[in-house]
Structure formats: structure tokens, C-alpha cells
Amino acid sequence: MTHVFEDADSFAEEAVHGYCMVHERIVRAVTGGVLRSTVTPAGKVALVIGGGSGHYPAFAGYVGAGLADAAIAGDVFASPATQLIASVARKAERGAGIVLGFGNYAGDVLNFGFAAEQLRAGGIDVRVLAITDDIASASPEETSRRRGVAGDIPVFKIAGAAAEAGLSLDDVERLARLANARTRSFGVAFGGCTLPGSREPLFEVPAGKMAIGLGIHGEPGIEETDIMSASSLAALLVERVLAEAPDGASGRAAVLLNGLGGTKHEELFVLWTYIADALERGGITPVSPLVGEYVTSLDMEGCSLTLTWLDEELEPLWLAPCDTAALRVGNTAPAERAPALPDESDVRRSWPDATPEAKRAGQTFALALSRLAATLRNAEAELGRIDALAGDGDHGQGMTRGSRAAAEAADEAAKAGAGAASVLAAAADAWAARAGGTSGVIWGLGLQAASGAFDDRTSPTREQARQAAKSALEAVMRLGGARPGDKTLVDALAPFVETLVADIEADLPTKVAWAHATERAHEAANATADLLPKLGRARIHTERSRGHRDAGAVSLALAARIVGDTINEH
Amino acid sequence: MTHVFEDADSFAEEAVHGYCMVHERIVRAVTGGVLRSTVTPAGKVALVIGGGSGHYPAFAGYVGAGLADAAIAGDVFASPATQLIASVARKAERGAGIVLGFGNYAGDVLNFGFAAEQLRAGGIDVRVLAITDDIASASPEETSRRRGVAGDIPVFKIAGAAAEAGLSLDDVERLARLANARTRSFGVAFGGCTLPGSREPLFEVPAGKMAIGLGIHGEPGIEETDIMSASSLAALLVERVLAEAPDGASGRAAVLLNGLGGTKHEELFVLWTYIADALERGGITPVSPLVGEYVTSLDMEGCSLTLTWLDEELEPLWLAPCDTAALRVGNTAPAERAPALPDESDVRRSWPDATPEAKRAGQTFALALSRLAATLRNAEAELGRIDALAGDGDHGQGMTRGSRAAAEAADEAAKAGAGAASVLAAAADAWAARAGGTSGVIWGLGLQAASGAFDDRTSPTREQARQAAKSALEAVMRLGGARPGDKTLVDALAPFVETLVADIEADLPTKVAWAHATERAHEAANATADLLPKLGRARIHTERSRGHRDAGAVSLALAARIVGDTINEH
Question: What is the ipTM of this complex?
């Protein structure tokens, strides 16, 4: 249970702030994350890591000499927004390029990927490294679909040591990819966790049971059994991990026995005695093993075993000194304190001149977004519940945060006299920048594409509405990579757009077309209950998520109705 | 919930073993605890700390350069046994004396105190340091009754730095006592914890409620309120601690915001932002604050705030380098590995020649102890439950462990032909050595005293039984410090012994006297429900413990019946 917080919405941000206050010797806070507070020499490759919050010490706890240069912290269990990743990475960059490291989750892949494109557009060489160590999350034939869990830590440690040693971006990337390719994790869970501000756990494991392969956000696992003795649990973990030893693996491995938050050190130490035995019988010598809480999931009960098979290149990097809040190895030289960063001042937007009609249209857009934000706020818990059945349960929070930011930005723009296109563009930027998660970047992109169909001179036309809908669908599918049937919002967006476009082309009144399209979106959202999840989720499916609707499709259908109602009134 | 263990009885021992495997660079396991694995120079004062297990990183996590020389680990929530403390301390001693540091709990006070006497008898200068930082556990007029909680850490850190700096035993003791006198802690709890092997929590806090001042083993607190926001909680903690600022305190303090296990780092970081503000308003500058899990209580949910007001002597010691598994400050020089210790071989006992009658009596004693062990094993959960209502809930486990060890030792001695006195003495030694906790040392002392009334030449006489009972009561009261009415086993033992002695002196048959005495013990055990706890417990009393029997008195009454039944049959 998460009991201590002030405002659930700002929990992650306040936690990072407090962390930086306590560890000011090592880190300092910047918008979106943390940087080393010590001088880093020019010409060093920057290792920038991140992901959702709620996993401390991941990721901010691993910033410091010999490890990461910066970390970006999203909201609890939600990917950080693209703009924040790019902004923190720019501050960490020292002229030798950036490795962006994160666990392989749909939202992180999108946001870090888009951030990399933005950074490259600014002339910075960036390599993207998605960690894929969780063998329970996809089959050996589909390792690129595997989630990243505690294996983040040995891979980042090795990459950080390579960067600290002054290796080139190519070499740091090569070694990091090698380490990831040689890293395997397998975990079990005894109990779920509760998001700050929630009264109910995000997911649960039945009393006395153990969920094998359950994801750290509650993503479906492989099976449930009775809780095992420490020796049987050790045998299970070691057997599963060793069964996937990489080809040509040596007998030496970095080993991490990780507690998820509610499984305590003494339990892990007991378990370690049996794991060490089982590894020895399996011919593995653990090199400088770590046993403790390294990637948590709030107070989730459970643990995982990670092995990174070492060779003569990787082992010295694993053993190299580092000085971070969560991990210290050896002694590092006392570092000089970095000078203060220039103040980050808010960029004030100015808007193109708009006609009265376009301003009125902008006000209507702002009103629709404001109503959407209110509706999504009310639906937050239910959307989270639907999402948690198959995924990481962050959808409700992400949609609330994104729609509120978008509504605020739209309101500000409309009050400043912006026209329809500018209001929508401002909303899109704010949604993408502040929502985080998968839904944040997807909605931001979709709205951004839609805004391009309008202008600041006219009242929106039927043709513009048709074009906006088509552009939004194209952008979402192209950039998000989802197809109809993948159990995402595309399942509702595609029939919505197709119906709207067809009805407009058939010269039906816009109101009728919109209502018809909205109806189709609702039917489609409900129909997602019959689909299996495919995108960015575990392929190993459990009964738990069967028969439940996709939260993204549900919120898209909700939005279609709210926007339609608002347009009809104006 | 504690889920990962092999055998609940050996949880603590296996945890220490695993801990030493993981941190072999710093520590090595010895019987009863851990020692530094690095060379410590002769002439350095030894800081030896310890207490019950279940509190990692306390205490083994604080052994290493610049902090403790050794730690003794009792069973979960139970004081280590006297003999183990003395044995570990002897191995840590380097010719300049020992400071024995522990939290102020009845069992620890007894066991560390007796160990100090044993060590002094061997010519070693020993200072005993009971930490008394928990301001919720007794009034400011009775600080010596206060429990030790997270304040252990700054006090031990300061004492360890003083010892490492080469100060004399007098100076290390003086600085440690000064630090303790300037240390205040105050805590809250949101939820209880579960002992390994238990299905039910040792204690609980109602959902949505917060127990203010609750002890880390569930000892009664001050009051229950609704859970507060982080800012209100910060204000409460700071207000209570600052209200007891020591006379002449400076504006600089070592500060520790401690999580009890189930309250996670991100929650603590959020809370810290408000605590730092409140401290600043209170005129306190936190010096190198610690925010994290430093003294846990398995997976208990809750946190505490500790301040140690610093002066120019204490501050450099707080900031001095140390290198332990749980706390690293600055850089310490790489240390040479200590040579292996000589094997600890079991001392084989030999027994004085005994007559056939005395051997038969020894066998009867062994049988009675074996039946007692079986009975206590069955009653373990219930005794633990009774104990948890007012105390730390370890009574059932301690009695099971002690009686089993005593029964095994008695059986071995009886089979080897030992007489009545020797069998009882062997049982007493084993109980004291292996039970730990308060009950372990008390029962060991009581049985040891009783054994002196018998011999290995005769069958026990009525006069010997009378004398044994008197001696046991005297020893328990003298060494344990409890009086009738203090809600301890003395409440049942005293009427038992008085009745037995009076009836024997009145020439009643032994069977009748024993039955009569047993009846009185049972009445008295039930009557303890009307007493308030006084000894080694919080004086701040709640409804929770009112009206419940004392577990120690109950088990004494149980034992009286079992032993009587066995004697009657033989």
C-alpha cells in the first residue's frame, strides 16, 4: 500500500525532488529528471536512462560517476514524455553522443524513440537501447518483444562503465547491446501494489499463491502456483534462467537477486543461499552478485533473478567503480561540483493572427477539450482498472493528465486569441509533453496531425474535418505501429474515421456523420473484449485479461461523444 | 507478509549466512553473528552491536570499516542469547575493550548485560550502551525506559567513528552516551508485519488508520488517527521531535528519515521535501541526512524521524568515512583481508559419575522437558498472540526454541548417563544459549539455579525440590529485575514457589503440594489480565493490551502442569 503522498498527481515529481535534495552530492533536479551534480568531462558519451516512476532506485538512483549521466522520470508506471526525454538528454550531452536506455515497454519505445529523432534532428548522434531481459514476457523466438525488468541494471552498469572509460559511442552501444543480449531475468510475485491515491491495489495475487512471470506493473504472467519454499523457488528461478543461457556463454555471470519492494532483504538473503547453490550446480560462478532492492514496483511483493553472462570485455566493466545513490562499487575520485545550470524559463507562445470565425472555432475546441478533461477525470479509476487487467494500469492517469494539460493549453491559447489550428496545436503539444506514457505520445501525435488540417482564418469546414480525421488516424497508425485488431485505440479510431469520412463523402450532415461514427467507435471499443492483446504486452496470455475491453479504445470512444456533443451545441 | 523462507525456525540464521555470502568483501559469518572480514588493528576499541533479526540493515548491515566491528543476530524480534553475544564479542576484541550497543528492550538489556559480566570476568573492559531514542515509548521523565529504534544508527555511527579514530574506551563510551542523550525519534505505522511461517500478521493497524508511536515490534503506541497527508505527517513528526530538543542543542542535526520496510523510498522522498521545510522553519540544518530503510521491521508499513543534535565533537564523527553494506560515507582505504578464524568445534561435555537413582531422575527430568517442548510447540502461536498484544510477540517462538534445545541437551546428557543435577544444568545451558529473547535468559538462569539444589548421587528429595524452587525464584527475580505485579512470569512463579514451599514445609505429600502450587500458578497467570504491563514495555498504554494475560506467566503455569504430570508418573 502506498500511504505517504501529498497530491497523488505530483507524487513522482515530488519524489524526484526529495531524492535530489537528499543526494545533492551526486545529483541535481532538472525539469523531467535528474542530472549528475558533478563535472562530467567533454567528449564523454552520455548514458541517459529512464522510464516510469515507482521503481526506485530505478532510474534516478543510478545516476552518478561510472554509471548514468542523467535519468528521466515519468509519472508512476508511465513513460516520460518525449519532450522531457529530449530536454534532459540535451543537458547531459557532452559532444560524444548519447545512449538512451530504457525498459522495452510500448510507451517508452515510442517516447524515447521520438526523443531520439528530435535529438538527431538537432545534430546529436543518439543510440536507442531497449532492455529485453524478462524471459517470461515473450518466447525465445521473439526476444525483441520481451519486457525490460531488473536486467536494466547490469546492462546500464556495463554501458555506464564503458562510457566512463572514454569509449566511443559505437563501442558503448556495441557493449550495451552485447550485455543486453546476454541478460536474462525471471521473476515471481506474491502480491500487487497500490498507486498513490488509490484505495485498491492495481492488481493482486491470491493469498498463498505465487504468480510466475508476472510483470512488474501486473502484466499477465505464465501461471499461478502455491507459494514455494525458498529452496524450491531458488531451483525454479535458476532453472528458468539457465535454460536460456546464451550461445557460447561462459561460466561467469553478473547476478542480481532483486526484491520488488515488499519482499525484504532478509528473505532475499535466505533465498540467495539456495540460489548460490543452484548456480554452482549449474556451473555458474556469480561475479560480485547484488542482492537487494534494485528495481522495485512500489511495495509489490516478489523477486526476480537476473544473470548477465560475462566475457573478458564485459567483466571489467561490471566490476568498474561507480558512485551512485543506489549502487557503489569501489572508490571513485572525489568529483568537482558542476556549476549551476541556467534557469529554465517558460517559453511564452505567440499565436498567428486569427479571424473572428477561427477564434470562435478555437474557443469551441477549447471547450470540448475542457469537457473531455472533466469526463476523463471522472472515468480515471475505471479506465485504470480496465487497463490493469491486461497492461500496466496507467491509462486512466495518463489520459487525465494529458487531457487536463491539453485543455489548459487550449484555454490559454483561445483566451490569447488563437485560431482553430493554433488552439489544437497548442493542446497537442501540451498533451504530448505532460501526459507521458503510451497514450500521451499517441494522443499528442494524433491531435498534432489533426491540427494541420485546420487553419486560423476560417471556421472549420466539412472537408477540413474529414482531412483532420484521416490525418490523425494515419499519424497514429504510422507512428504508433498499431493495426486494427491489436487491441489499442486504433480499434475504435479506425472505424470512427472510416465512418466519418464515408458519411461526409456521401454528403450526410456533419452532425449525423459524427454521431454515426461515434456509434461505430463505441461498438468497436466494446468489441475489443473479444480480441487478444498483441501490442507491447506479454504474449503469454492469461484468463485475467480475456473478455475485457481495451482502455485506449474506450477512451477514444468517450472522446468522440464529448467532442460531438460540444460541436452540436455550437 | 514474509513469504520467502525455508524453515521458519532457521530464517534468521540463514539470512545472516546469505548476507555474509553476498557481502564477503566486508563481513564474515561466525556462530551468532558477523565480524568484519578485514584486518582490524590491535589496540582499537571494538564496537559490537546487535539485537533481534528482522530489522535489516540493523544490525549486520552496519559492520565494516568506520562503524561496527561485529554484530550479533538473535532470532526474529528476539534478543540474541548471552553466550552468543559474549562469544562474538570475544572474537571482535582487539585489546582496548568493547562497547556493546543495542536497543533498550528487556531481553537485550538482560542478555547483553549478562554477556558484559561474562566478558569482564574474563578480564575484558566492557561498556554497555542501551539506545533510548523513541520518545513515544516513555515520558521525558523516564528516558531510561525508552525503547531504541532508528536512533541506533546515528549513535552507532558516531561511536564507530570514534573507535576507528583510535579514541580510548572511556572516550568512545562518553561520545556514544552523549550522542544517545541527544537523539530523539518519533514514528508512525500504517500496517503490521508477519513473522516467517506465520499466516497471520503479528499485529495490524486498521485500514486507513495510522498508529502514532507504535513500536517496531507492535508495542502499544499513543493513539490512532486517520492517515495524514505527507505535509501533515511531516509537521507531526518534526513537531514531536523538536518538542524534545535537548538542553543547549545546536541548530545542526544528523537526521534520519527511516522506512520500516513496507513504506518505500519514493514515499520517503516525498515526505522528506516537507520534513526539510519543517526542520528549516524549526531552525534545524540537517547535516548529511539519510532517507531510506535503515532499521526495518520485516515488511512493516510506517516510518520514523530521528534527530541527533550535533556539536563540534559529534559532527565530524557523523561525517567520517565508513564502508558497510548498508551505509557508505566517503572513501575508506582498501582493507587487507583478515586471515580465516580457527574452526569453532563443538565442546563435548562429559558428565560426573552418577548413581542409578540419580540417572533415573535425570531421565525423568529429560522426559518432562521433552513433554514441555512438545506442549510449548503446540502452544507457540497462541503464546505469540498473547505476547503480541502488549509486547513484541516473540514469546511463543522463544519458548519453543528454548525448550526444544533444553530437551535435546537433557536427552543427550541423560543418555550419556548424567545424573539429575547434570541433566538439569545441561538443559539450562542449552536453553540460555539457543533460545534468545527475554524468556530464554530467564528460563536458563532459573533452571541453572534449580539444578544447583540437586546432585548426581541421590534421587531428588522433597527438601531438594523445595530448595530448587526457592533458588529458581530468587535467581529469576534478582537477575531479571521483575517483581510480582510487573506482568511477567514472576506473577505465576512466585505463588507457585511460595505454595510449594509452604506445603512441603507443612508436610503435605509432594504430589499434593505440586498440584496445589500448579493450581495457584494457573490462577495467577489468568489474574495477570488485570495488571498493567510495567516491565520493559511502553508505559503509554492502549486498550489493546488491557485485560490480556501475560504470556510468560501462562507458559510458566503450563510448564508447572507438564512437569507435575511427568513426576507423578515416575
Answer: 0.82
